[in-house]
Amino acid sequence: MDNLSDTLKKLKITAVDRTEDSLEGCLDCLLQALAQNNMETSEKIQESGILQLFASLLIPQSSCTAKVANIIAEVAKNEFMRTPCVDAGLISPLVQLLNSKDQEVLLQTGRALGNICYDSHSLQAQLINMGVIPTLVKLLGIHCQNAALTEMCLVAFGNLAELESSKEQFASTNIAEELVKLFKKQIEHDKKEMIFEVLAPLAENDAIKLQLVEAGLVECLLEIVQQKVDSDKEDDIAELKTASDLMVLLLLGDESMQKLFEGGKGNVFQRVLSWIPSNNHQLQLAGALAIANFARNDGNCIHMVDNGIVEKLMDLLDRHVEDGNVTVQHAALSALRNLAIPVINKAKMLSAGVTEAVLKFLKSEMPPVQFKLLGTLRMLIDAQAEAAEQLGKNVKLVERLVEWCEAKDHAGVMGESNRLLSALIRHSKSKDVIKTIVQSGGIKHLVTMATSEHVIMQNEALVALALIAALELGTAEKDLESAKLVQILHRLLADERSAPEIKYNSMVLICALMGSECLHKEVQDLAFLDVVSKLRSHENKSVAQQASLTEQRLTVES
């Protein structure tokens, strides 16, 4: 290591004199020492203060520039050297060197910047602000024959693409075109994998999704699927998964999705359809998720239901009832739920037997499946009185809903169960449904739902409770009393933060409860008149009118 100390001293002198030959000799010795013991050599370099001189050596016209950049890249492999490199002002001259024509300079400069900024979001953000993204994309286009430089660019893209601030800059370059061009040339799995790792974070951006679709990425992905679908080699299975996942990601953008749907006639849409009946779980999953993504507007949903997609999804679900694949169940139910949103599709899906197919999963213990099952049923019965009545009289279903209303660990399942209970009453307006829900112990959950933090859920609960009070008050009064409904209504009316529709529906409900002796007594004991009379001057006309009617009713009944 004494030789190293001599080299460092000599380097200080030659760095100032700029004698190229002796400078080159010193740099070679340093690189040799780093190759033998990187950490110890890096410590000596830091102690010597030589880093400060490196900034002045990073000049485009010097023959030593590549070696200086290489030394910086090597020392910056050590975490303790990264801040000293930044403090020595090396980032700015290195970024300037990305405009060099020399491929070795470019390679070592890229390595140096990559190592200095490794794992540091703030330094990577600084690089983005200095405009390295357009420069690197240009380099990839010019030097696509140089494997080492290409790899350097891809590693840099992979790191920078993790930052949200990079996406806009990437979108203003032709990165999509360059990556797809590069992808088409690759034969080796590792190289494709490397490009995939850049594509995935970039494809989260909607503008880039569209650019990737226009650059022909989808055709590449479909080709991979076709080639690898029957293979049982580990690399091929991984590639198939990555390609089909990326395909689904591209469909999350509205414009890219619509472009690929092509009115349901598109080649891509047809190919994705063929994945659903396949025997490959990964393809079944991607196919169902793709349909769920295509089903994001009414036009697409109506077209798909008219062209038999529901039967394909039901067949898929059937294959996964016993010990089925949970992710496939979840994806197929997601697709059915989205397809059931347009009013015109509901009756068609009901008569195709979707309810029966979905109810087979009632015994599932997996919250994601439970959540989608509930959402699908709720969409199907919206304004479908007959279906709502049929489901609402299904004791097994109602008992399971009541059980899930207590799933404290799974807020989504709990919320959806409450909403479906309320929907069964609101859409069926059936005494039998109300009796089934009372007998299964569902009333207390609807009362609790009226205190939800979501106005839409509060409202749904109040409307359902008003129907219960109007149609089956005698059957439900005990449960309404023990759930403290009257006290809750008093609180909702007195609370200034309650939305106008909540106040309105609470008063409608109060009037409906007057037919029960025990609840009527509770209303009298709580001095409702004071709260209601204040609402007569409410800025919302409907609330003010309902307050007058409720006040009259309370006065007469007292």
Describe this structure as you would to a colleague:
The structure is a single chain. The protein is mainly α and 558 residues long. The protein is built from 37 helices and no strands. Helix 14 runs parallel beside helix 17, helix 27 runs parallel beside helix 30 and helix 32 (455-482) runs parallel beside helix 34. It starts with a helix and ends with a helix.
Summarize, please.
With 558 residues, the chain is mainly α. The chain contains 37 helices and no strands.
Shape: elongated
Helix percentage range: over 70%
| β-strand amount | under 5%
Q: What's the pLDDT, averaged over the residues?
A: 92
> How far apart are the first and last residues' alpha carbons, in Å?
101 Å
Spans with pLDDT under 50 lasting ≥5 residues? none
Keywords: Cytoplasm, Endoplasmic reticulum, Mitochondrion
InterPro entries: ARM-like, ARM-type_fold, Armadillo, RAP1GDS1
Organism: Rousettus aegyptiacus
Main location: cytoplasm
Key terms for this structure?
single chain; 558 residues; mainly alpha; 37 helices; elongated
